[in-house]
Amino acid sequence: MAQIFDPIPSDAAAYILCCYVNATNKIQIVRISNIANWYFERVVFPGQRLVFEALPNAQLEIHSGMMASAILADTIPCDRLRIEAELEADFEMTASNDGLPIEETDAESLATLASAD
Question: How far apart are CA 117 and CA 113, in angstroms?
Answer without folding.
Answer: 7
